[in-house]
Write a structure and sequence with these properties.
The protein has a three-stranded mixed β-sheet with strand order 2-1-3, with helices on one face. Strand 1, helix 1 and strand 2 form a beta-alpha-beta unit. The protein has four helices and three strands, in the order E-H-E-E-H-H-H. The protein has a domain of about 70 residues: Tubulin/FtsZ, C-terminal domain (60s Ribosomal Protein L30, Chain: A), CATH 3.30.1330.20. It is α+β, with helices and mostly antiparallel strands. The termini are far apart. About 25% of the residues lie in helices and about 15% in strands.
């Protein structure tokens, strides 16, 4: 009775959990499946599971979780209205996507122009870091011996 006022026609996925006692028959299980099939589209993914609860007698609890409702409508309205539009988008002018572009790593696809390096005419004198080539435990042992 609860499903009669709900429209699941655009649903992309449905999870149905049937909890009943040991007295549940196959006919009752099929009846739940038939009722759910009436409200969904043909391309929806449906997963049905059962739980046997020995304490439940002459009753059945059906839990339905539906995903993807309204996605079709929201996809059409969101195209071109994104506040963060990418400059390096791989979409073609006809709206299709260039999947060959995905063969390149995302880092190189999203890369902007490299910043220019400005060379100083008077380079700073860096401290001698050759001692870092020696592992720390050897440097410490030399400090202890000295």
């Amino acid at each position: 009775p609860l499903l009669e006022d709900v429209n699941f026609s655009g649903a992309r996925g449905i999870l149905v959990n049937i909890t009943a006692g040991l007295d549940m028959s196959i006919g009752e299980f099929e009846e739940v499946g038939d009722v759910v099939k009436e409200f969904i589209s043909d391309d929806a993914s449906v997963v049905v599971g059962t739980v046997i609860d020995p304490e439940m007698t002459d009753e059945m609890r059906v839990t339905v979780i539906v995903t993807g409702l309204g996605e079709i409508r929201s996809r059409h309205t969101s195209i071109g209205s994104s506040p963060r539009a990418r400059l390096n988008d791989s979409r073609r002018t006809d709206g299709t996507f260039d999947y060959h572009e995905l063969d390149r790593p995302a880092v190189t696809r999203r890369q902007t122009a490299a910043p220019k390096v400005i060379k100083k005419s008077n380079p700073e004198v860096l401290p001698d870091t050759d001692y870092l080539d020696i592992p720390a435990f050897l440097r410490r042992s030399e400090e202890v011996e000295a």
